[in-house]
């Protein structure tokens, strides 16, 4: 269950996703680090995310699910998400 204080905290901080998250390349020096490991945590079965999850699996990503946490899993399922992310380190 979503904590209303967490939801209010998050809502006050929501903004547009920075453009560079789509355009800036990962530095070549990161290829030998944990950044190079490809991971995907699917938190919803919405069509776009379902297709992205299937693609990640086909490409060999480490794949986990956290249904039905939704796009804001850090608010709706913080403990379960932390467990999954901790297991991917």
In short:
This protein has helices spanning 4-11, 20-23, 47-58, 73-76, 78-87; strands spanning 39-42, 62-65. It is mainly α.
Largest sheet: 2 strands, parallel
Strand runs, count: 2
Termini separation comes to: 26 Å
Helix content: 40-55%
Radius of gyration: 15 Å
- Structural class estimated from helices and strands: mainly alpha
In the predicted model, the low-confidence regions spanning at least 5 consecutive residues are: none
What fraction strand? 5-15%
- Would you tell me the overall average pLDDT? 87
Series of H and E elements = HHEHEHH
Per the principal axes of the C-alpha atoms, what is the gross shape? globular
Tally of DSSP helical segments: 5
Strand ordering within the main sheet: 1-2
Mind explaining what this structure looks like?
By secondary structure, the protein is mostly helical. The chain has a domain at 35-89. The chain is built from 5 helices and 2 strands. The chain has a two-stranded parallel ribbon. Strand 1, helix 3 and strand 2 (62-65) form a beta-alpha-beta unit. It is globular. 8% of the residues are buried.
Characteristics of this structure?
89 residues, mainly alpha, 2 strands
What's the topology here?
Elements: H1 4-11, H2 20-23, E1 39-42, H3 47-58, E2 62-65, H4 73-76, H5 78-87
Parallel strand pairs: 1-2
